[in-house]
Amino acid sequence: MLPIDPHNEMAYSFVVFGASGVLAKQKLFPALWALYRDHRLPQGFKIFTFCRSHLQTKTLRLQVLPYMDLDKSRDPKKYNLFWTNVHCVQGEYDRPEHYVALGEAMARQEAKHGQVQANRIFYLALPPVVFDQVTLNASRKCTSSSGWTRIVVEKPFGRDDVSYRAFQTSLCNSFRESQIYLMDHLLSRQVMQNFFALRYSNHLWGETLNHRHVAAVMISVKSELSVSAGRADYFNHFGIIRDLMTNHMVQVLAMLTMDQPYANTADDLRAERLKVLRQVLTPTMADVVLAQYRNNGREADPAKCGFTEHSYVPKDSFTPTFALVVLRINNRRWTGVPFILRAGQALNDTKSEVRIQYKPADCDVFHGESADARNELVLRSSPTEELFMRVRLKRHGEDLCLRESEINLRVDERRGPRGVDGYCGSLLNVIQGDQTLFMRTDEQCEIWRIFSPILSSIEFDRPRPLHYDFGSRGPLQAYRQAERAGFVFF
Ligand code: NDP
3-class SS at 87? Predict the structure, then answer.
């Protein structure tokens, strides 16, 4: 990604639709502030909020303060300046005239900058029920007449293949593919981009990523937290597979497994990702383990109760809060390798990582000591970004005994500006027009092709999920399923 020239002459209007919500407060404003503080936004960059609530800059500023990475000794002056660039517009999502008012508010600020080109970014931090109204009205009433207009959409991208197609049609009727950014902040993590560098600029790793060397791959997103009250309705309706697997996790899978793109461009990468997604076989229910957390019997804390004990969840809900799905790719590179997706809430820790597990060494000079040993390449994106290789080395001393060791590839060593996370990187990509790390709409279509059969089985057959204790490692059956598929837990 090329750095943005902060002195470029253009004006930018960044509109947060749904700015009164959780995502805007906890992720977007902190990321925008971090970029502003570190001089990574162009000078003519203005932020507009649009929502039904009567939001004022003063109140918004108070509401987002707990989430801002603010150094009181260094930043206060700059922080005040940041807020002079924020303008609140109140409006209803279904009222075209309110979008006209928004367009006028943007035009006033853009004119003050005295430039010839004004660019606009619409960020939909909104629930899907209003996506259609907002995309239609925004495209008709407030796109830029002198520059470009881009739209960023947050998951969920539909609920299944049918609802996604309606969403895609509506979005593509209002905006061209080159204007659409389907957000996936996990792909913007340094560790994922480092994997790309590792794979394509090093003989060692590039040559080993195939079925001849790799035994199994596990992609995990684990959270210690229960489903929060604010997301309960959504989560109960969507479940863990739709929440995490049908977007972030499969995108990570596609980035890991795609063939070499012709060049490092958005078009080439997206084409390769789509190709490998098309080769992912549709799983059946035999490839799936579903579970739901329950009170572990030791917790007095009501926040650690079982999923169906939350006041906001129906008592008879079968919505899985944990899922394991084994996917397989039908191509020459990956045939026979299981890709195990595992995601859960209320588990023993919070961690997002990929473990690429290699086959054991095919020589045995250590008389069985290394027979079951597997190298692992681990890409961890949270809680810290790490890239390391698990290997076996000689134990220090006279005897030739083996020990487990790690080769740290240190992606975290040179962090960028303070507080940069996936959102900062993604926002910069949108400003620069780099769609490499955003899904093309046909990629998401393919993802629904993969998951829709098991999702409709879950919906119509209502299989009873297994139970696991709050704060545990998840159901034992999931571990057994992963082991049967070929993964080894150490
Ligand atoms: P919220 O539920 O907080 O909603 C955001 C805003 O949308 C609200 O403040 C409200 O603004 C408006 N809104 C809410 N419900 C309705 C409705 N039924 N009709 C019209 N307007 C409504 O959502 P989040 O901020 O948590 O998330 C926004 C989007 O991003 C969602 O699609 C979510 O799935 C997705 N997302 C969220 C993440 C998170 O961390 N929170 C992570 C990843 C994705 P007002 O009434 O003022 O107009």
Answer: strand
> Across residues 341-348, what is the average pLDDT?
97
Active site annotation includes 248: yes
| Tokens 């970004």, located at residue | 385
Q: Is the pTM of this model over 0.80?
A: yes
> What ipTM was predicted for this assembly?
0.95
pLDDT tens for each residue of 420-450: 467 888 999 999 999 998 999 999 999 999 9
Give the mutation target among 16, 17, 20, 23 for probing the ligand 1 site: most ligand atoms within 8 A of CB.
23
Residue 277's Cβ-side half-sphere holds a number of Cα atoms within 13 Å equal to 27
- Which residues' Cβ are closer than 6 Å to ligand 1? 18, 20-24, 51-53, 93, 125-130, 154-156
Angle at 139 between CA 135 and CA 142, to 5 degrees: 120
Neighbouring C-beta atoms of residue 394, cutoff 10 Å:
12
pLDDT value at residue 90: 97
Is pLDDT of 314 > 80?
yes
**pLDDT tens digits along 394-421:** 888 777 778 888 888 876 554 544 444 6
Q: Ligand 1: which of 126, 133, 426 to mutate, judged by most atoms within 8 Å of the beta carbon?
A: 126
Pairing, β 351-358 against β 214-222: antiparallel
Q: Indicate which residue of 87, 185, 248, 310 is catalytic.
A: 248
Alpha helices in 114-189 (DSSP H): 131-141, 161-174
Ligand 1, atom 32: closest residue by C-alpha: 127
Residue 299 has pLDDT above 80, yes or no: no
Question: Which amino acid, 197?
Answer: A
Positive or negative: CA dihedral 137, 139, 144, 146: negative
Are 361 and 208 in contact by the 8 Å Cβ rule? The answer is no
Residues above pLDDT 70, as percent of the chain: 94
- Its sign, for the CA torsion 405, 208, 353, 348, is negative
